[in-house]
Prior knowledge:
- The structure holds two protein chains of two kinds.
- By secondary structure, chain A is α+β, with helices and mostly antiparallel strands.
- Chain A has one domain (5-68): 2-Layer Sandwich (Alpha-Beta Plaits), CATH 3.30.70.20.
- Chain A is 24% helix and 21% strand.
- Chain A contains two helices and four strands; from the N terminus they run βαββαβ.
- In chain A, strands 1-4 form a two-stranded antiparallel ribbon.
- Chain A is globular.
- The mean pLDDT of chain A is 86.
- Chain B has 18 helices and 14 strands.
- By secondary structure, chain B is of the alpha/beta class.
- In chain B, the strands form four sheets. Chain B has a six-stranded mixed sheet with strand order 1-9-8-14-11-12.
- Chain B is globular, with a radius of gyration of 21 Å.
- Among the domains of chain B are: 22-241, Rossmann fold, CATH 3.40.50.11540; 334-421, NADH-ubiquinone oxidoreductase 51kDa subunit, iron-sulphur binding domain (de novo design (two linked rop proteins), Up-down Bundle), CATH 1.20.1440.
- Chains A and B meet through loops of A and helix 3, helix 14 and helix 16 of B.
- Flavin mononucleotide is lined by residues 74-78, 80, 101, 103-105, 181, 183-185, 217-219, 222, 396-398 of chain B.
Amino acid sequence: xxxxxxxxxxxxxxxxxxxxxxxxxxxxxxxxxxxxxxxxxxxxxxxxxxxxxxxxxxxxxxxxxxxxxxxxxxxx
Amino acid sequence: xxxxxxxxxxxxxxxxxxxxxxxxxxxxxxxxxxxxxxxxxxxxxxxxxxxxxxxxxxxxxxxxxxxxxxxxxxxxxxxxxxxxxxxxxxxxxxxxxxxxxxxxxxxxxxxxxxxxxxxxxxxxxxxxxxxxxxxxxxxxxxxxxxxxxxxxxxxxxxxxxxxxxxxxxxxxxxxxxxxxxxxxxxxxxxxxxxxxxxxxxxxxxxxxxxxxxxxxxxxxxxxxxxxxxxxxxxxxxxxxxxxxxxxxxxxxxxxxxxxxxxxxxxxxxxxxxxxxxxxxxxxxxxxxxxxxxxxxxxxxxxxxxxxxxxxxxxxxxxxxxxxxxxxxxxxxxxxxxxxxxxxxxxxxxxxxxxxxxxxxxxxxxxxxxxxxxxxxxxxxxxxxxxxxxxxxxxxxxxxxxxxxxxxxxxxxxxxxxxxxxxxxxxxxxxxxxxxxxxxxxxxxxx
Lengths: 76, 446
Ligand SMILES: Cc1cc2nc3c(=O)[nH]c(=O)nc-3n(C[C@H](O)[C@H](O)[C@H](O)COP(=O)(O)O)c2cc1C
Ligand code: SF4
Ligand code: SF4
C-alpha cells in the first residue's frame, strides 16, 4: 500500500501566484488575500495525488510539498 | 560570561522593575517562590543550596526517565511533555544545545522575569539539568534586548557559580529583539543562526535546531521545575498539582487589579474567586482574559467559581497559555479591547505569511469598525468566515492565537457585539485600554 501523503503549503514561501489553484482546482483555493489554501480533507487519494504533484511542480515559489501524514505540526 | 553592557549598547526601555510574588492554595507550600521574600531580591547561591541541597548525579536516559515519571509539562504555553523533548534532543544526531527562553513576549505577563530575578539559581540549575539530560555542554540564555534587570540577576548568579566551581554548561547570552513572535522556538533558532528572529516553517528544533544541532528550547519556569524534579524525584514532585498537570504553576495577575504584574504560585487548582481575592477583587468582574493575548475571554460570572489550573481550563476549551489571568472590569468594552489587542498582534506579525500579514490586520480593522458602530451584520458574518479561514495557515501559531481571542470575544461579549452590529457605537469608546498595548519600540528583527 502506498504511503499516505498530505499536501502542505509553506505559508512563508507562498506568494499568492495562484498557479497551484489552476493546476489543482479541486484541491487548492485562494483565500481572501490571494494565498493558497488546501481545501481537501487529507490524506489524498491516488487521483488527487497526481494533480497535487502537478501543483507542487508548478508552484514558482516552491511553496508546496507532499509529506507523509504525521510529519506535520510537530514543532517541538 | 559578562552580560553587561548589552551588545546593543543602550537600554532605552527597561521592563517593569517591581517584582511581587505570593503563593496560594494548599498545605504543600510554595516551591518556586519558597525561600526569601520578593523584597529580598535575587536569592544568592548559598541560600539556594542551603534550602534545596545539591542536584542529583543522574544524566542521559536515566535522567529523562525520572523526568518522564514526574509528568512535567512545558510552561511556555503549549504544555508539551518535557521528557519527550529532552529525549528527542538526546537521541538526535549532532552536538546538542540548550536554550533558556527568558524572552516572555506577552505584554501583560510577568511570571518569567519575576522568576529569573528572584530565583536565578533555580533557573540555571534547570538549564544544567537539561544539559545533563541531553548531553549538552552549552546553554544559551535568550533574553529580550533591554531586559537588563533579568540579565543582571543571571550575570551575578553565573559569576557566583563559577566561583563555587559548580559543574555547569557554558552559559552565553543572546539579546533578541523585543518582539512578540521572537520568543517562538523556530524564531529563536533562526536568530541564533545569525538571522532574523522570525519563525520558520517546519522547524523541529529538537531534531534540527540551531545550525541543525538538536536544540532543547525551554521556558524558564519549565527549567525551574526541572531543577526540582532532579532533586526531589518524581513522586515528591507529583505531590503538587493534579495527575494531568503535575507540579505548581506560576500565574500573572493583570488588568484591573491592585498590582498588575503580581505573580502567584498555585500549588493546586484554585477557584478564580480565591485567586482574584489576592488581587483585591471581591466580586465577579465582567470577564477574565486567560492564557495571554492569544488566549481566551471567559465570562466573569461563570469563571468566578471555576478553577484556575491548566488541565481544568483545557477541559473548558480554554488554553492556560503563559498563565496570564487578566481582570476585565464592568463598564469597559470588550469589543474595543479585543480590537486593540488584535491590532497589537497584527503589528507584531512577522509579515512573512500572507494569511497572517493581511488577515490579522483585516480582522483588527473590521472589529474596530464594529466597535465604532460602523459595521453591520454582513461585515460581522464576513469577519467570522475570514477568521476561520486563517486558522492553521501561518508558519507559527501566532494567527491562531489571535483568532482564538476573537472567537471568544464574539461569544463572551455577544450582547455588545449585537448592539454594535446594529450600528450603536461603544459606550466606552474613549477610555484607555485595560491591558498594556506596547507600541513598537524597535522595528528591527535582528
Ligand atoms: C507567537 C509565539 C510566541 C511565543 N513566545 C514565547 C515566549 O515569549 N516565551 C516562551 O517561553 N515561550 C514562547 N513561545 C513558546 C515557544 O515556542 C516554546 O514552545 C517554548 O519556549 C518551549 O518551552 P517549554 O517546552 O518549556 O514550554 C511562543 C510561541 C509562539 C507561537
Ligand atoms: S502557486 Fe505557489 S506561491 Fe502561488 S499561490 Fe500557489 S502555493 Fe502560493
Ligand atoms: S504566522 Fe505570522 S508571525 Fe508566524 S511566521 Fe507567519 S507571518 Fe510570522
